[in-house]
Amino acid sequence: AQSVTQPDIHITVSEGASLELRCNYSYGATPYLFWYVQSPGQGLQLLLKYFSGDTLVQGIKGFEAEFKRSQSSFNLRKPSVHWSDAAEYFCAVLLYNFNKFYFGSGTKLNVKP
Amino acid sequence: GAGVSQSPRYKVAKRGQDVALRCDPISGHVSLFWYQQALGQGPEFLTYFQNEAQLDKSGLPSDRFFAERPEGSVSTLKIQRTQQEDSAVYLCASSLATGGYEQYFGPGTRLTVT
Question: How far apart are CA A63 and CA B91, in angstroms?
Fold first, then answer.
């Protein structure tokens, strides 16, 4: 079945520590890949996207993600987390022949001072 | 500039009532999407408009759900005879081009059915 999996429901990291949020997808072809962040009461904000080309993509707020075709993964990373990064993060795929996003169930990030 | 706006931000409805949720997309955006986000879940696709044409409504959960975008800008999602399982945040997103390569999301409407 087609799916987007974010295996970590909650993650807690200390401020200044590095972060990696995992995302795996299960589709027949390489879809377009996205990471969004959602703060409480806010809409989804696009962090970064991958369509093709360089598999390491840079986004806003110091985030980056790496596409690994062999692992069907698109993990989000940040070298040093700030308290303001506490939010929920969603991985999403877009099947380019269809106009639909499929979202993972999200990872809630807590940041310890 | 102005982003996607949605109204109301919060709506409480008694079971069986009809509700209408409004989305104002970014001016000039061709594509408009509705999503339903249940508590603790990621958003799930409901329907897609390209201008005024509803090209995909495969995600609408039942015939109680109806969406329109008559002039190709503002869109309304209507839910008839609301049920408790309709309680969720309803998100609207718009995209400049056809298709949804870069979608800009509104803050959502939180619907609670009592």
Answer: 24
